[in-house]
Amino acid sequence: MDLKQLSQVLGLSQTTISRALNGYADVSERTRERVMAAAREHGYRPNGAARRLAVGRSEAMGIVYPTGSGDLGDPRFLAMVGGLTDRCAARNIDVLIASSPPEGELATYERLLRNGRVDGYIVPHTRRSDPRIDYLRTRRVPFVAYGRCDDCQDIAWFDFDNEAGMALAVAQLLRAGHQDIALVHAPTSLNFAHQRLLGYQRGLQAAGLPPQPQRVVPAEFTRVGGYQAAQTLMQSARPPTAIVADNHVLGVGLVRGLLDLGLRLPEDVSVIVYDGIPADSPLHSLGVNAIEQPDAASAGHCLADLLQGLTEGRPVDALQVLWQPVYAPGRTVGPPRGA
């Protein structure tokens, strides 16, 4: 059965049927379900090549990630991609993931665009000043930033309130009696790390505590970076009584490093990990206290919806979404040692 025959069976125009099958928002849910049911009943399959030629679209969206970023080993990233893929598949859209050397990201964006491989992008791990976003702006390509940047008023983005989440972590440690709180953070060129550093500073300031620059430890965005930070902090002349890791990648290395030093959690040092310890880590059973964000698969759904909103011409200020994190109690926060 072809589109014309399906149109005759349903008594609907070919345009309405096409838009229903492709998930356009201007088709009612009742009509969409009716069209989908009839298509299944009669074995109708859209001619993908013909449709792409007719509308001038590739029916794919892309994510470019730099090699060495660790994303493909990150359960949260994979869960986000899973949610994104599920939502896009329901609209007959593919998700393409392209690897790139860190210094060649823009060239990869250019090739994908020039060759008509994708219709839009999700830009992950946004930076405060992000050349990828600047490039896509100038090319007027639909994209959604997975995270904010310093200048994001005119773009679609999805993010979590990183500053509020880190301030919440500090508040929980203060409530437990800690005043000597260290932060281990990823490079602050990444916007989430910059925002979480601001939240740490805000949390201390709200309690009337002075800045503690000697307790702020930058680390490589790797588990090794977190491990090395544990050594640096706890082998100092005056170790902190509590540590917050600003992401789960560093957090796994940090906790491993503390345990390898023979330290007990929370008797010797209290720990909170932003995003928590991944469920596939052997350290998950420790019950590390965490700042948690809504599940990553739901974030993927939201990113897909935002990108579709762009293609439908919705105003950008309606396509900026900020979700709030929550505190997840565990077994690694207690009173300061000696208290």
From TrEMBL:
Source species, domain of life: Bacteria
Keyword DNA-binding annotated: yes
Keywords attached to this entry: DNA-binding, Transcription, Transcription regulation
Pfam families: LacI, Peripla_BP_1
HTH lacI-type domain boundaries: 1-55
Keyword Transcription regulation: yes
InterPro entries: HTH_LacI (IPR000843), Lambda_DNA-bd_dom_sf (IPR010982), Peripla_BP/Lac1_sug-bd_dom (IPR001761), Peripla_BP_I (IPR028082)
Gene Ontology MF term list: DNA-binding transcription factor activity; transcription cis-regulatory region binding
Name the UniProt record assigns to this protein: LacI family transcriptional regulator
Naturally occurring in which organism (per UniProt): Ideonella livida
